[in-house]
Amino acid sequence: MAESTGTGATERVADVLLLFTYGPPTLGVSRVSRELDLSKAVVHRILQSLSSRNLIAYDPDSREYRLGPAAAALGSRALRDSDLRAAALPYLAELRDRLHETVTISAKVHGGRVYLDQVVGNHEITMSVELGRRFPLHAGSSGKCMLAHSDPDEVDRMLAGELTALTPATPTDPEALRAELVEIRDRGYAASAGERQGDAGSVAVPVFGPGGLVGAVSVCGPRFRVTEEFVDATAPELIETADRITAQLGGTAPARAVPTSTGRTT
């Protein structure tokens, strides 16, 4: 099991806490043990330690654990102090006012990405996203554009693992996804239709800081409005917005081809 391989106690605690950022709202000892390949005794000790500090809380009805108030406080502080969020917000509002669809900013995190903030569209029927929840990189435009610009070893590890289908449209063929990542790098943006959420479509562009990739900015809305024509028209504006955020952070945007067509799957 993982605890016998030399992985430090700090890493095990972090892995347990991160497991609560996606999936079901409550987790039991057996589920955590199975997901992280840790013994139940080790998991129980970690959960007790986190619970004593209110980072997680025990639910007596389900006999499982959920994130606690201290975790919520940490998340709120992280959002408030995020350089990426602060740099992006004025540009998100400008883009929403021009396109009238929801505009989001996501950050790359260990094992996926999280939405940091959004400026919701002003149509009568619009879309909003769940802030702070971790999503996989292979599903949806924000994740795919980050994955396309991730370290090749990280891409290989992800494609060698299980690509969970969040919807029937989620990419689950590793070789097809690898080919799509090449196209995304070349044209500078990713598009999706129903990959993370069945009735939604989106287009996204990566954002870079001084150390490289940090996140992605996206425009998203109901699938019936986010058509290929919408994506083709929106991509140049979104690229310009992402590059302005990158410049604000002191990063450098990669060279890319002039956007021509989505090449997306439906």
UniProtKB/TrEMBL annotation:
This is IclR family transcriptional regulator. Transmembrane segments: none annotated. One of its GO terms (molecular function) is DNA binding. It comes from the Bacteria. Keywords: DNA-binding, Transcription, Transcription regulation. One of its GO terms (biological process) is negative regulation of DNA-templated transcription. Residues 70-251 form the IclR-ED domain. The lineage of its organism: Bacteria, Bacillati, Actinomycetota, Actinomycetes, Pseudonocardiales.
